[in-house]
Amino acid sequence: MKKSDLIEVIRKVVRKEVKAALKEQQDKIAPTTGEFGQMMEHAEGLFNKQQYTNDDALNEAMNMTANSKDEWRSMGGKTFTDGRAGLANAMGMASPDQMFRGKPTAQQMIPQDRQHVEIGDDLAGVLTRDYSGLMKAIEKKKGKK
């Protein structure tokens, strides 16, 4: 073995060992908890952006949501796992069925300040229609794309 080959092998080994030792020391010196860790996580979120749409404002909002680490699942100490349960939870009810006691009436769907207004059957049908079938068809169509 030539002297230059031996020097090159030693350099590679030393480089590898120094990197491992530095990584080990960095983990001990700068833990990812506390204020510094939060700043680093925030900075990481800023640089790990994905391109969801061509609209810059919408893309920024979507990246903020994607990088929020499930912050949106709770609000005011109450946890939201799905829309109906989350709304019922926010209203202080144990289950979504308590919200309207089954299928809602048109009167229940009208805001409190409009309760005195009479509504027609066509609007009542829109307010009380079960849109779950439509939403399932939309999801099914999304799955085919």
Task: Produce a short descriptive summary.
With 145 residues, the protein is mostly helical. The protein is built from 8 helices and 2 strands.
List keywords for this structure.
two-stranded antiparallel sheet; 2 strands; 145 residues; elongated
Descriptive overview:
The chain contains eight helices and two strands; from the N terminus they run H-H-H-E-E-H-H-H-H-H. It is mostly helical and 145 residues long. It folds into two domains: 64 residues, no CATH class; 45 residues, no CATH class. The longest helix has 27 residues.
Instruction: Output the strand order for the largest sheet.
Output: 1-2
Mean pLDDT across all amino acids: 76
Low-confidence stretches: none
Radius of gyration: 28 Å
Count of separate structural domains: 2
Q: What is the N-to-C succession of helices and strands?
A: HHHEEHHHHH
Number of helices: 8
Number of E strands: 2
Coarse structural class: mainly alpha
CA(first)-CA(last) distance = 61 Å
Give the helix proportion (percent range).
Answer: 55-70%
Largest sheet properties: 2 strands, antiparallel
- Structural shape: elongated
Strand proportion, as a percent range, falls in: under 5%
